[in-house]
Amino acid sequence: MSDFAAAFSNAVSLIVELDAGLAEIVLLSLRVSMSAVFIATLIGLPLGAATAMFRFPGRMSIVVVLNAMMGLPPVVVGLVVYLLLSRAGPFGVMGLLFTPAAMIIAQTVLIFPIIAALTRQVVEDLWEEYAEQLRSLGATPARAMPTLLWDARFSLLTTILAGFGRASAEVGAVMIVGGNIDHVTRVMTTAIALEVSKGDLALALGLGMILISLSLGVTGAAFVMREAARG
Hints:
By secondary structure, the protein is an all-alpha fold. The protein is 80% helix and 0% strand. The longest helix has 37 residues, at 100-136. It starts with a helix and ends with a helix.
């Protein structure tokens, strides 16, 4: 018990004193996760909205695939991205393996189906509700899409936050494609796993507290936005 108390006290000290090593890991984690969320949003929002509002051959197949990809195992995503970026893979010449860029790609693959699938559901519900009114005003699905996306902005922000939560807590894929290299690709989740295995509980606890705080912050923001959307 005394060892845990000492580790907890040291963890708090690391956070309060803004330890350089801890700050470096946290900042890299945020950069990777936020970049992945930004790219996934650019892909997922228009794809989800288009799937909701347009009828075209293969639409239901896309819906099924997006829904299925929401539950992709991170280690499988990491393995696929690893094979694509390895020297023997089609993109090996780019030299992205074991870099933050590879981690961003893996996280983007993980979270864009979440954003796309949830966007499709939100926009489809709004389109069913307002389609007749919008058509009476002469709006085509393409012209109505920005209006519906704006109307659903609070719900969509909640969806994006859900994607960020998935990205920031992910460990399997980034471990495989990033390699957990110190000062290069070590993020919070991979650092926690490593430090626990080494017995350095202070740094692991410090990172864990920050990760939990981020999770609580994201959950709280999502709740506030959901309530704002209802209001």
